[in-house]
């Protein structure tokens, strides 16, 4: 999968994809992430990419022309399955959306800034609008990083048995059960005996019960 990201602050996206699982996905050739500076596609003075909004009001709007130049120039290289605009008024990201997107070929993400992008870009090019939750960020970049992470780890072949997504919170509409590692006892705080029993059927049963209990207590809405 190739993911292109159009941004006015590409510096914000310099490192999030160079670590851990997303780094491995790229090293394995399963994922390629390319960040593009919108300014490079501006035909205005000083690389201008935003302007005052028609009708008045505070805050700048990202202009049509640089965005069209960027999108159409990338479309000459790549066919996109989805063109995603990261915006607080989009669909709230969940595991189902991440699962669906992880099976696509190529994605283009557009990060909004200021008051957002000219509506005509949304009408003419954008196929999906995604928010990462009900709070406001200063721009779409960190949301794009979250989205790439959520998708990237689900691309077939990226996770191995040990990191398998099958045991993630939300994967079966259940939160993940508690986990423990060495030592068996620290300051008198003990690891639940069943996990040390070696009885794999019992352990699975315990994990399922714990996951169910945790979900009922914390997130009854996803059950
Ligand atoms: Cl995608 N963008 C911005 N600016 N704020 C957000 C968001 C996106 N998702 C939640 N808050």
UniProtKB/TrEMBL annotation:
E.C. code? 2.1.1.228
Q: Name one GO molecular function term.
A: tRNA (guanine(37)-N1)-methyltransferase activity
The compartments listed are: Cytoplasm
Q: GO CC terms for this protein?
A: cytosol
Q: Does the keyword S-adenosyl-L-methionine apply?
A: yes
Tell me the InterPro entries matching this sequence.
Alpha/beta_knot_MTases (IPR029028), tRNA_m1G_MeTrfase_C_sf (IPR023148), tRNA_m1G_MeTrfase_TrmD (IPR002649), tRNA_m1G_MTases_N (IPR029026), tRNA_MeTrfase_TRMD/TRM10 (IPR016009)
Q: What is its main location?
A: cytoplasm
Record-annotated tRNA methyltransferase TRMD/TRM10-type domain positions: 1-222
One GO biological-process annotation of the entry reads: tRNA N1-guanine methylation
- Where S-adenosyl-L-methionine binds, per the record, is at 112, 132-137
Q: Looking at the Swiss-Prot or TrEMBL record, what is one Pfam family this protein matches?
A: tRNA_m1G_MT
Return the SUPFAM superfamilies for the record: alpha/beta knot (SSF75217)
tRNA processing found in the keyword field: yes
Under catalytic activity, the entry for this protein gives: guanosine(37) in tRNA + S-adenosyl-L-methionine = N(1)-methylguanosine(37) in tRNA + S-adenosyl-L-homocysteine + H(+)
Keywords of the record = Cytoplasm, Methyltransferase, S-adenosyl-L-methionine, Transferase, tRNA processing
Q: Which Gene3D superfamilies match?
A: 3.40.1280.10, tRNA(m1g37)methyltransferase, domain 2
Query: What role is this protein assigned?
Result: Specifically methylates guanosine-37 in various tRNAs.
Description of how the protein assembles with itself and partners: Homodimer.
The record, for NCBIfam families, names: PRK00026.1, trmD
The Swiss-Prot or TrEMBL record describes its family as follows: Belongs to the RNA methyltransferase TrmD family.
Write the protein's name.
tRNA (guanine-N(1)-)-methyltransferase
From which source organism is this entry?
Answer: Chitinophaga caeni
């Amino acid at each position: 999968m190739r993911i292109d990201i159009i941004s006015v602050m590409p510096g914000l996206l310099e490192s999030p994809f160079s670590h851990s699982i997303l780094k491995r996905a790229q090293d394995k050739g399963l994922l390629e992430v390319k960040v593009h500076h919108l300014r490079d596609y501006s035909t205005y003075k000083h690389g201008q990419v935003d302007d005052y909004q028609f009708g008045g009001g505070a805050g700048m709007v990202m202009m049509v022309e640089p965005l069209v130049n960027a999108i159409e120039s990338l479309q000459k290289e790549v066919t996109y399955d989805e063109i995603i605009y990261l915006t607080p008024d989009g669909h709230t990201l969940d595991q189902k959306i991440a699962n669906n997107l992880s099976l696509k070929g190529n994605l283009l993400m557009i990060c909004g800034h200021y008051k957002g992008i000219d509506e005509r870009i949304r009408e003419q090019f954008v196929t999906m609008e995604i928010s990462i939750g009900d709070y406001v960020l200063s721009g779409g970049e960190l949301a794009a990083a979250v989205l790439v992470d959520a998708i990237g780890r689900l691309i077939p072949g990226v996770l191995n048995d040990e990191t398998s997504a099958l045991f993630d919170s939300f994967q079966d509409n259940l939160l993940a059960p508690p986990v423990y590692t060495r030592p068996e006892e620290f300051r008198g705080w003990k690891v639940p005996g069943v996990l040390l029993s070696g009885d794999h059927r019992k352990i699975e049963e315990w994990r399922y019960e714990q996951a169910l209990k945790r979900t009922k207590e914390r997130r009854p809405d996803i059950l």
